[in-house]
Amino acid sequence: MSSAHPVQVIAVTGGKGGVGKSNVSVNLSVSLANMGRRVALLDADLGLANIDVLLGLTPKRNLEDVLAGECSLTDIMLTGPGGIRIIPASSGTQKMTMLGTMEHAGLIHAFSEISNQIDVLVIDTAAGISESVVSFVRASQEILVVVCDEPSSITDAYALIKLLNREYGVDRFRVVANMTRTAQEGRNLYNKLTQVAERFLDVSLQYVGQIPFDETVRKAVQRQRAVVDIAPRSKAGIAFKQLAEKVDLWPLPSTPRGHLEFFVERLVHGAAE
Q1: 4 near 263, Cβ under 8 Å?
Q2: pTM strictly above 0.85
Q3: pLDDT tens-digit profile of 135-151?
Q4: Per the UniProt record, which residue ranges are transmembrane (predicted)?
Q5: How confident is the model at residue 209, as a pLDDT?
Q6: How confident is the model at residue 116 (pLDDT cuts 50, 70, 90)?
Q7: Listed residue (166, 173, 121) closest to 146, CA to CA
Q8: What is the arrangement of strands in the sheet containing 142-147, beginning at the earlier edge strand?
Q9: Which of 65, 103, 233, 242 has its CA 20 to 30 A from that of 111?
Q10: Which residues pair with 205 in a beta bridge?
């Protein structure tokens, strides 16, 4: 059943592992929920699912069970902090891109079921530039690239942007600097990425801010909680709230059916290419 309800689909990615991508995904999702948005968070790291671990949740079923036709997407969704709905990944199933025709149809049907229940779908992609990562990112409406102050972070982020731009024509990316020591450090990271990307690629990069290094984040991870949940007034908590306020102003999709079914169709067709 098609829906006219606009759903914003945001992929959080970065190329490199260890840049805090999942933490950004969780805290952005909770911050948006705290602002009144109905948010679903999809753990798209199909080999090493970790959103449930970050939040101390124990999924009984996951996306693999939905694709097998054993349950609906609503059945597997977990409720997280702020009321966010979490869609757990199928850990150990690397190849989302190896789905057959029936699974493709099942995926489209599963997501169309929830399109009227959510306003935002945040996708926490895996690290690297595998086919699975590329499929999820290409299908999304907005791409948030997370970078941190490590040479390999900039190199890997550039590699992902280059692949998406040259192979698939993706030309718009948003950048957030994570675990920064100063505001200037975040701006410098963005400038480094912009200099190389705009020199060699036909892309537009927009800086959406920085999340400061904050010991409170580590404590929140140890407690399996979102930092915006247990310490909203911490430096990181405030920064995540500010990031969510910016994301809240991004334009809603203008596709006739909103974006969720369009997202799934592109995900499926991208995987089938």
Answers
A1: no
A2: yes
A3: 888 888 999 999 999 98
A4: none
A5: 96
A6: confident
A7: 173
A8: 78-79, 85-87, 39-44, 120-125, 8-13, 142-147, 172-180, 204-212
A9: 242
A10: 173
Name every residue whose Cβ is closer than 8 Å to that of residue 202 and which is 6 or more positions away in sequence. 165, 171
Residue recorded with tokens 């904050």: 214
What is the per-residue burial (b if ≥16 Cβ within 10 Å, else e) of 160-173?
Answer: bbbbbbeeeebeeb
Distance, CA of 240 to CA of 266 (rounded, Å): 29
User: In one letter, which amino acid is 143?
Assistant: I
Mean pLDDT of 58-73: 85
The structural domains of the chain, ordered by start, are: 8-272 (3.40.50.300)
Cα 104–Cα 11–Cα 183 angle in degrees, nearest 5: 170
Q: Tokens in use for 135? A: 């499929």
Highest mean pLDDT among 68-82, 116-130, 173-187: 173-187
